[in-house]
Amino acid sequence: MSQLRLLPSRLGTQASRLLAPHGVQTFSWCSRSSGPPASFASSRVGGGSSYMEEMYFAWLENPQSVHKSWDSFFRKASEEASYSLAQPQGSVVSESRPAASSRTETSKLVEDHLAVQSLIRAYQIRGHHVAQLDPLGILDADLDSFVPSDLITTIDKLAFYDLREADLDKEFQLPTTTFIGGSETTLSLREIIRRLEGTYCQHIGLEFMFINDVEQCQWIRQKFETPGVMQFSSEEKRTLLARLVRSMRFEDFLARKWSSEKRFGLEGCEVMIPALKTIIDKSSQMGIENVILGMPHRGRLNVLANVIRKDLEQIFCQFDPKLEAADEGSGDVKYHLGMYHERINRVTNRNITLSLVANPSHLEAVDPVVQGKTKAEQFYRGDAQGKKVMSILVHGDAAFAGQGVVYETFHLSDLPSYTTNGTVHVVVNNQIGFTTDPRMARSSPYPTDVARVVNAPIFHVNADDPEAVIYVCSVAAEWRNTFNKDVVVDLVCYRRRGHNEMDEPMFTQPLMYKQIQRQAPVLKKYADRLIAEGTVTLQEFEEEIAKYDRICEEAYGRSKDKKILHIKHWLDSPWPGFFNMDGEPKSMTCPATGVPEDTLTHIGEVASSVPLEDFKIHVGLSRILRGRADMIRKRTVDWALAEYMAFGSLLKEGIHVRLSGQDVERGTFSHRHHVLHDQDVDRRTCVPMNHLWPDQAPYTVCNSSLSEYGVLGFELGYAMASPNALVLWEAQFGDFHNTAQCIIDQFISTGQAKWVRHNGIVLLLPHGMEGMGPEHSSARPERFLQMSNDDSDAYPAFTQDFEVRQLYDCNWIVVNCSTPASFFHVLRRQILLPFRKPLIIFTPKSLLRHPEAKSSFDQMVSGTSFQRVIPEDGAAARAPEQVRRLIFCTGKVFYDLVKERSSQGLDERVAITRLEQISPFPFDLIKREAETYPGAELVWCQEEHKNMGYYDYISPRFTTILGRARPIWYVGRDPAAAPATGNRNTHLVSLKKFLDTAFNLQAFEGKTF
């Protein structure tokens, strides 16, 4: 019969103490049978050692009397103790037990070895809590002054593990989970503690034991525990000193020349420059050719000067208050701008391309943008493992902990269609956020704790120890290359000058800044150290400073000759060959966007079939595919098929297409089905779009994580890398783009004006009032139109190239297509234009299956193009002089209007014209339509509420083109706070009401505009 005992041994006590902070329960049991019992009790273990002894001697008598895990455990413990214990041979070793004194001695030795192993593990898990990370020595980097009781002092440690001072000089076998012994397999306890404190409790704090991969943990232990690993040659130390000189003297130079200018300098973390250069150097040695960086504004100018190696005169001339802008756009402040530079890495003598992505004051907004750009560069190079292209992200501590987009970006790091195969994150830990104390700014111990969600190792390091920083950065770069995973370097530093150079930090952090005023700069401390050890002389150090000061002075002199700002010098994503040498489009024409009918037919046939053999699809999908085949025979397309044909025709022309967003593979409304799933084989899928032609461009369609901010930023960065790709992001519902508003406001709407950065990203935003509630109806078109930069009061000159010129002059294009053919053409036009502009498309929901929302091949074949305005083509158009009312509208409401007009018998008296392109406003076509019906009242009809939708945008533009003598009246829902109702009956009542008004030909008689 099995006998089960809880074993609260001293080992159990140690295990419990070690694991309890991590929420782990320890179970100990012993069975007299050959295997574990069917069930057993559990508790947190603790107490004396008698049970442990009893089980140990039971094992000595018969190793099969305990579970095999304990058998293995006691075998290993006995071997490591180097004690001459009888090895069990067979079922019985001895007829009688050893003497009591022998049992106690044996047990004590085993337990002492186990205690030492627990002590080693405690340092590995919690040593970072007692590391000396704060250069100022006044704050706890983890916001907790508590020191783990098993790591306080040597005496406390010994007592915690039931060891004595006499044990300090005993030799102990080292476990395989530590490398502190180097080539030695045993060490004295005194030496074990000394080496552990040297590794885990000095200027480097390591968080990695939460990683659930033994190989990765062993790799990190070996890199930091092995004796002598942090040794630098004299040449390496001199290089580090020279880089610190450049970093610090650059800031000093700016402070001397422009003492009253904001520059968000790097003082207090000057070591960041050699840190970044080390990551780049090490990565270059391992084959990286392209590094893409993102960072906030602190230290950006220094990074541009000393890492990217932008010409210093270009930077200095930005400080000239008389500088004039030569290029288009508003520009941005100098510490927001980016840069692209190809150069030789002098350490590796290899070519390296460095780009720093422009970023607004929304500190972490650039994170997903950098990741998307990196992913695109890897894709175009065929770099599936990230061995040629990598990203580095620099963060501030407060933003890293506080900004949700950091979490969103981390969760993209291991998704197949979004991974960049590891990013090196460098956190500039100022230990403050503007004026906010970290104890008021975050709930987590460290600002970097968000990285634990993806098992990224976190290396905390005191930024006033340059050699420790450089070693950590070298290991971080090697980790990224070895495991293709994210890693975080936490530079614990301080801000010498406050939030910016104009700030007074003593208002809010007096004690901190009193200490900072007494703090010697890192350059002085490190130079004194190298001079003392004889690595450099004082004269050599002073000559290095003088040399860089001369470089800055000479560049300053040259900068005075630059009176015009060429913002293109700050471009972070050049597109070689796409524009003329002067940066202008090669033409102002756009070819017809139609394609040959045989191309449409071929795409349609593939879209309605399964290219793989023995592939079983869902029965419901079979009906959908048969429906597609039927449409092809009838030469018609619905919305999904029009999209398929737009994508497929571009793929044939060598244009890569990428569609991303929540549920885009199937489509939120189950209309797309671009990825087919085998019903019998798990994870066997087929993408018919990639089976169109043998030499086509690749098509990527990928469901995203449940993120808008992070994913839209990612796709923006992806579109930034090349103009020869159609990159689309689809919101699950158009309303949900508002959680990505930062990307829309700071990058998409203003990107070209601020940073001369063309971008052709397409936003697909499902939109339409259908009684589905205020979060599933409106893509908020009024917001996009308000941010459009075309002038409502400027009467345009209708030149021959007016249509394309107008698109070039706008900041983005806003459309609401009413037909599948329009959708097809506008997607193709996006690529055929000689420039790139963001495209906002309000896509339908109910129209996806509306029987009238179909288009003929005749509207899509060669020679056809996108129609900005679709005029009336029915009975009213044949007798325009009899038309009493001309209704302008856009999108889905057109079908409601047509149906109501027919039911009231007003087909000849009311004309309906659709605006497919809303911004830039089609002044020329609107003028032509209004003149076609000179006797008609003009009405704008929309299904959105009056304070939303399009009316406030179109109304002044109608006035500009037609004058006040011919006003345009509003018909639609009344103003409201919420964009839509969730009550179906209320929705239908309001719909009926405004449709009645739209066709009441006496509604506006006698009214003044």
From TrEMBL:
It catalyses: N(6)-[(R)-lipoyl]-L-lysyl-[protein] + 2-oxoglutarate + H(+) = N(6)-[(R)-S(8)-succinyldihydrolipoyl]-L-lysyl-[protein] + CO2. Its main location: mitochondrion. One of its GO terms (cellular component) is oxoglutarate dehydrogenase complex. Keywords: Calcium, Glycolysis, Magnesium, Metal-binding, Mitochondrion, Oxidoreductase, Thiamine pyrophosphate, Transit peptide. Residues 637-850 form the Transketolase-like pyrimidine-binding domain. GO terms for molecular function: metal ion binding; oxoglutarate dehydrogenase (succinyl-transferring) activity; thiamine pyrophosphate binding. CDD domains: TPP_E1_OGDC_like. It is an enzyme of class 1 (oxidoreductase). Its EC number is 1.2.4.2. It is found in: Mitochondrion matrix. It comes from the Eukaryota. InterPro entries: 2-oxogl_dehyd_N, 2oxoglutarate_DH_E1, DH_E1, KGD_C_sf, ODO-1/KGD_C, THDP-binding, Transketolase-like_Pyr-bd. One of its GO terms (biological process) is glycolytic process. Its cofactor is Mg(2+); thiamine diphosphate. It holds the Pfam family 2-oxogl_dehyd_N. The OGDHC complex comprises multiple copies of three catalytic enzyme components, the 2-oxoglutarate dehydrogenase (OGDH/E1), the dihydrolipoamide dehydrogenase (DLST/E2) and the dihydrolipoamide dehydrogenase (DLD/E3). OGDHL/E1-like isoenzyme may replace OGDH in the OGDHC complex in the brain. The presence of either ODGH/E1 or ODGHL/E1-like isoenzyme in the complex may depend on its tissular distribution. Belongs to the alpha-ketoglutarate dehydrogenase family. 2-oxoglutarate dehydrogenase (E1-like) component of the 2-oxoglutarate dehydrogenase multienzyme complex (OGDHC) which mediates the decarboxylation of alpha-ketoglutarate in the tricarboxylic acid cycle. The OGDHC complex catalyzes the overall conversion of 2-oxoglutarate to succinyl-CoA and CO(2) while reducing NAD(+) to NADH. The OGDHC complex is mainly active in the mitochondrion. Involved in the inhibition of cell proliferation and in apoptosis. This is 2-oxoglutarate dehydrogenase-like, mitochondrial. The gene is OGDHL.
